Amino acid sequence: xxxxxxxxxxxxxxxxxxxxxxxxxxxxxxxxxxxxxxxxxxxxxxxxxxxxxxxxxxxxxxxxxxxxxxxxxxxxxxxxxxxxxxxxxxxxxxxxxxxxxxxxxxxxxxxxxxxxxxxxxxxxxxxxxxxxxxxxxxxxxxxxxxxxxxxxxxxxxxxxxxxxxxxxxxxxxxxxxxxxxxxxxxxxxxxxxxxxxxxxxxxxxxxxxxxxxxxxxxxxxxxxxxxxxxxxxxxxxxxxxxxxxxxxxxxxxxxxxxxxxxxxxxxxxxxxxxxxxxxxxxxxxx
Length: 286
What we know:
single chain, alpha/beta, BirA Bifunctional Protein, domain 2, 7-stranded mixed sheet, 3-stranded mixed sheet, 9 helices, 33% helix
């Protein structure tokens, strides 16, 4: 499983919901909450994403698109990925790079100069499943980067054997590439009545940092690209968030309402951070 096509299921891949909903290309219709979040540390970012999905699964939170950043550079590992060998933990310590483990599947990556998105949605009755969701979400992301002037395409997928445990050395089905180089990597978790998908849109890449923390990071020059490289400039954060919002409005028919985390979500986030994402037991469990 990979950040890029990393899918983790809870009980069944074809998770169902007893809440009806109309679909447009697989997306639930209606009003979605938009969270444009400030920078947070790695454990908190992962806890927020899971809390949003839990709320959708249990019926007390709306469909939510969250756009966010990281307060310190952080490596995230896939749910089933072994930490040792995939990432140089000693180099992370020397550089002040955090390490977290996601609840989604996939390979490791370094969150630094990027826009991270997460999408938490209930899965309505009759929902068509994993590949349908990957396809329509990728379509929304494609529309977003096209608005920025990026001539991206949706990949048919390839996974070089030398990719090892690093996300941006492989390209999977429905991921966005430009000239064969990967621009966005995503991963998904299927719950019984909700899905969580989150991913990294690279704005800039500090390649020496990537090569320092990932033993097999030396081939990123040929395999990955960034908005800065493609546009010839460093795009403003507000510009990128507006483009992503517009991509989901056009591609999924979403109607966004700006929102904030609720008190209940904040309680769940604090509990998940304390008991899971900030613990070595969780992060280094494999």
